[in-house]
Design a protein that fits this description.
nine-stranded antiparallel β-sheet, two-stranded antiparallel ribbon
Length: 323
């Protein structure tokens, strides 16, 4: 399902770096380790049946092939993401950290080093300096050496990997099932029957995987669809209600009040048709904005001195003359 890998970012030897401004992204997974550095605003991360708050300036580490969900908590949240394939460093291919909150395990000096390395890697990657591939991979090695030596972790057995693969495949099928049917009446019992499971077991699976019940998840998908229609210019709320799968207008209004604190009409007035921008990805599973390299450099110029004040020297950072 394409939604599970929304954007295939450019990779160099199994590594990619990008800035992402996220409103929401529903549960997804990928093969890479993922470092999330909240550089502007804060984020709520649902991960391993827990919800974590990532304040501005802090860092989280997500294990490969582990479903996670992201939401902004304020007006906006932009994060710098470093993804690294375990195949690049086989030594870390069967390791999992037990807690994603990085700064809980680093002292202030180590936190400063980590932010410096991430910032330096970002500049090298976005600026495409000579031999930037080698510099970025070297900095990624330093980052993961620090994190995995400080954070609690464990070896992942072959059986655990196989079970996770099966769970992820079922999650993918579940999302495909909802994607195909959310515009109509849809029942979890039908999916459970197709999977050869009891309804009770499948209800438990959905709650653990998505942090909400099946009907709550379907309602969220319908709400996201309605928001996408409004952003695309739809102004007749009754049409939006029906096209997004809400058969009852009162329930449609209730869902909007729960999700946004507004009626659909109020939401439409405040979130009208957005300007066309090829970097914006708005779907039933995500609302995110990605940036070109030049845009990313401008943002890092603006936020760098706030993020790493002890190390940042704007006039020569792009030449990697950090001290």
């Amino acid at each position: 399902m394409d939604e599970l890998e929304i954007i295939r970012h450019q990779q160099i030897g199994g590594l990619s770096l990008f800035l992402d401004t996220v409103d929401y992204r529903t549960s997804h997974f990928h093969n890479e380790w993922e470092i999330i550095w909240a550089v502007n605003g804060e984020m709520r991360l649902f991960y391993e049946q827990q919800t974590f708050r990532i304040p501005e300036g802090e860092v989280a580490l997500v294990n490969p092939n582990t479903p996670h969900e992201m939401h902004k908590t304020g007006e906006t949240c932009t994060f710098l993401c470093l993804q690294l394939s375990p195949e690049r460093f086989p030594e870390i291919s069967n390791i999992a950290v037990e807690d994603p909150m990085v700064f809980s395990y680093l002292n202030p000096e180590e936190q400063g080093k980590l932010k410096k390395w991430l910032l330096q890697a970002a500049y090298s990657y976005f600026y495409h300096k000579p031999f930037y591939e080698m510099e970025c991979l070297g900095l990624a090695g330093q980052v993961f050496s620090l994190l995995l030596s400080r954070m609690p972790g464990r070896k992942v057995s072959w059986e655990e990997e196989q079970n996770q693969t099966k769970r992820n495949a079922r999650l993918m099928r579940l999302q495909q099932f909802v994607d195909r049917g959310y515009m109509h009446k849809i029942n979890l019992s039908d999916f459970a029957r197709a999977e050869g499971c009891s309804l009770s077991y499948m209800s438990h699976f959905v709650k653990n995987a998505l942090n909400q019940t099946f009907q709550e998840y379907v309602s969220t998908v319908r709400y996201n669809c309605a928001c996408k229609l409004i952003a695309a210019g739809s102004t007749n709320m009754l049409d939006v209600c029906m096209e997004s799968g809400f058969s009852d207008y009162r329930y449609f209004v209730k869902a909007f009040r729960k999700q946004s604190g507004m009626t659909p009409e109020e939401y439409s007035r405040s979130h009208g048709k957005r300007a066309a921008d090829w970097t914006v990805r708005h779907s039933i599973h995500s609302l995110e904005r990605f940036y070109t390299f030049s845009q990313s450099l401008e943002l890092m110029d603006a936020w760098g001195p706030l993020l790493v004040p002890d190390y940042f020297e704007k006039e020569n950072l792009r030449d990697s003359k950090l001290v």
